[in-house]
Amino acid sequence: MRVPLSWLREYVDVPASATPEDVLAAFVSVGFEEEEVIRFELSGPVVVGTVLSFEAEPQSNGKTIRWCQVDVGEAEPRGIVCGAGNFYEGDKVVVSLPGAVLPGPFPISARKTYGHVSDGMIASARELGLGDEHNGILRLVELGLDPEPGTNAIELLGLDDVAVDVNVTPDRGYALSIRGLAREYGHATGAAFRDPALAVTPMPGSGFSVTVDDQAPIRGRNGVTEFVTRTVRGVDPSRPTPPWMIARLSLAGIRSISLLVDITNYVMLELGGPIHGYDLSKLTGGITVRRATAGETLETLDGQKRKLNAEDLLITDESGPIGLAGVMGGATTEIGADTTDVLIEAAVFDTVSIARTARRHKLPSEASRRFERGVDPLLPAASAQRVVDLMVELGGGTADELGSSIGVTYAPEPIALPSGFVQGVVGVDYTPARIAETLEIIGADVTATADGWSVTAPSWRPDLTDKWTLAEEVARIDGLDAIPSILPTPPSGRGLTPAQQGRRRVANALAAAGYVETPSFPFISQEQNDLHGSATGESLPSVRLANALDGQAPFLRRSLIPALLQTAHRNVSRGHTDLALFEVGTVFLPEPGVTYGTDTIPAGAVRPSDETLAALNAAIPPQPRHVALLLAGAVSPKQPGREAEAAGLEVALDAIRVIAVAAGVDITVAQGERAALHPGRTGVLTVGDVEVGYVGELLPAVAADADLPGRVTVAELDLDRILDLAGERVTVAHLSTFPAATQDVSLLVDAALPAADLRAALVEGAGALLESVRLVDDYRGQGVPEGSKSLTFALRFRAEDRTLTAAEATAAKLAGVAVAAERHGAAIRE
After folding, report:
1. Do 164 and 22 touch, CB atoms closer than 8 A?
2. Binding site annotation covers 463?
3. Cross-strand partners of 788
4. What does the pLDDT look like over 227-241, one tens digit per residue?
5. Is 472 annotated as a binding-site member?
6. Angle (nearest 5°) at CA 459 between 215 and 29
7. Average predicted confidence (pLDDT) for the chain
8. Pfam families in the record, alphabetically (predicted)?
9. Which domains does the chain possess?
10. What pLDDT band is residue 133 in, cutting at 50, 70 and 90?
């Protein structure tokens, strides 16, 4: 809301010494946001001049200029070249003398042009910043002005005024007016406020038929609650808008159109209630306020013919629709250059109805902006009377008795404000007297009760609906800077949960290992869910979005891999081919045959019960957090003396070991199968006997579909399950100071036996002395029987209390071999 300071000073005592920045600071202190300071960007000698004479001089370019002699209040007239032709000898005009700077900036100097030295410039309204239209030179007689030559035109036209722009939040519609912001300035500074609405004495009108016929109210609320009409006859539509009004409207961001229209806009800005004027001679019969019917159309003031919706609230007469209520009037009853009798409308419309209509027709207006935030229900009579008074004063009209007034009696509900509530919410020890005083300052009616106060909000504050909003008002008016800035002390032992700590350790560990985290949207196609969201590629249940952002991806993901493939494709298409990516995110795994969702949504201001929370949780599918990674290209680039090292399964397995260490578990890899992965190059990941994920190379066809060249390795793990298996605490193993004993063992087993199964048997048999076991070779060839393979493991033994002998290490190794032999028929390869 732009507030011209000269206008603000009419209704609140702003010190003459107060700068625009001081005024903005006052508004900020009561909770508004400052935007900017708006000025007419002109300076220097800009004066009134009288055109003494001129000579028309045709030019070779087809243009005719006038060589003018202009009296600017100096000893001698000035010679000025002007290209306009809409002024006459004896006209009073605005002259910018050398040294002046007009908006642009456009500095004025004496310069030679068209064979003359032009000693200044005769200005138009647009060149002075008074409007966007260029209708030639500004003739002061058209503004009803007859000043002496040499008069300061900047002061004469109000161009020395300045406005401050304040950002008004949606809950404070009352502040979209000079009346509202003058009151707020008084709250901020203690300055005396004079309510302009009380300065008007509304005169009743009668005899004009107005009917409200709202057959389809929205949410059970009638579309209009107040509707006042008044009539002014015999106005002179040719009368000019006074310069002070043009200047104020311009600073407020509204273009001057004509006197009658300018008056309605002026009163809307002044009091906050939108006004609409009809040409009374163009109305057919009385007015009916109703909803639109099927097939109706309306041409609005902007020249657009609009197809109406059944929810649109209309202003109609006997001819049909003549306006979109609270949004924009119709062209058929528009005030024009021949209007002499004006019907003035001031109303209060339902906020929801107006907001929906404005958005439906993409037609935001200054009127709808105010109606959808709430207009003072006691304002229409004063607003209509203020327009009548100005049209009589400035337009030469006569107030007529014809009019109407219908509405609902305003009876706000009192709000109970308990003692101690404000102090408990805000954290400031306000005295009871200060609380009552503050609420009375904003215009509320405060009555003491046995346990606090009964507070009735003023009519212009529909945002004050409960004790919470009253507490906010006390804090705002008393001073937000009085609220202490104190950080709460957390209870002992609180912080991140074990699960949160575990997820953070895993993500940090992968980032430290060189992987880049790439969060993504959880939206996916059914085909991608089938391919990557199940082990066999079968179609499993997926959650479909009711209002998908992308029609080609209407489902929530069952796997993180498709998003990593999209990210990889985007990087490869931009020349970044060596990739190590990961994501920690939620997947959505609905159970077959279960219907999810609920029609019961708890109230937002009430803490839900445990039963309600349980019902809400049961209404959503399982949403575990997974961690997934993708490798493509080279893990290390080509260097002098060393070829590039491709990123493959071995690198992915290293990353899985990083995850295992960070999570505090031991992850075992065994050969497996997966629909999207290469057979023979796919591993199943387990913790103990629990499957927690998979790792493998993408099938070439799948990689090609994702436009990814070469081999692509992926892995995905159920991070929530891994952390559950790890428990709440990650224990750090004790490091023995005694040396390790290392031995290798090569075992002959059936070629189909997974190495992981053989490793598990060795670990179980070797016992507590075995510190680590690592597969180092898989040999199948000469010396190994057909259908068999030789697996070599590197074993490391260590004791915490002594140095192991070779015999002890060998005994532990052979114990492991014995279990492997018993369980899998393993034999030591000689």
Report:
1. no
2. yes
3. 750
4. 999 999 999 998 988
5. yes
6. 130
7. 91
8. B3_4, B5, FDX-ACB, tRNA_bind, tRNA_synthFbeta
9. 2-40+162-194 (3.30.56.10), 46-156 (2.40.50.140), 206-407 (3.50.40.10), 415-479 (3.30.56.10), 498-596+612-726 (3.30.930.10), 741-828 (3.30.70.380)
10. low
